[in-house]
Amino acid sequence: MLDKEWAVRPLLLLKGGFMAGVVENACQTLIPKIQEMGYEVVEIEYAKKVDGMNLTFVIDCDKHKIAIDDCEKVHKFLDEELDILNPTNDSPYILNVESVGLDRPIKNERDFARNKNKEVEVKLYAPFNKKKIYQGNLFDFDDEKVVIESEGQKITFDRNAVSLITPIIKF
């Protein structure tokens, strides 16, 4: 079970008109069950793709990195539950379950906490000191600001000025 402190409502990206609302209601009943399995639902997307309507669940876990077995386990659970709930009233869709990925953008408080003291790249909407891209260790954050440490100096950005923050992955 996930720590209640980290119980964050997932990002819902629903692009299906009336059906989106039906799918949203079904998904809200499934999220607590997925959390009981030990996973966090980070994002749910119901949208038309090249191959038709897709219902995609993006999951994460505090205890370990998500592996293909985790995605398969959640997929099997969802497949059975969604067959019963029938959120699309028999309209066809493709069910996908994905991990957040190593380079997932840092979007919510949980992402910030997970990446604190790790190397990140900050992209700005407009130049600050003649630069739009900065790299450094994520030092601090709150609702209004993001602070990184780069070359021994702390740089503070207004959170509204930041377009994207991503972890820097080194192999």
Describe the protein.
- The protein is an alpha+beta fold and 171 residues long.
- The chain contains 3 helices and 9 strands; from the N terminus they run βαββαβαβββββ.
- It has helices at 18-36, 68-85, 109-115; strands spanning 11-14, 40-49, 52-60, 94-99, 119-128, 131-141, 145-150, 153-158, 162-167.
- The longest helix is centred in the N-terminal third of the chain and has 19 residues, at 18-36.
- Residues 1-8 have low confidence and may be disordered.
Compose a concise summary of this entry:
This protein has helices spanning 18-36, 68-85, 109-115; strands at 11-14, 40-49, 52-60, 94-99, 119-128, 131-141, 145-150, 153-158, 162-167.
Defining traits:
elongated; disordered N terminus; single chain; 4-stranded mixed beta sheet; 3 helices; 171 residues; alpha+beta
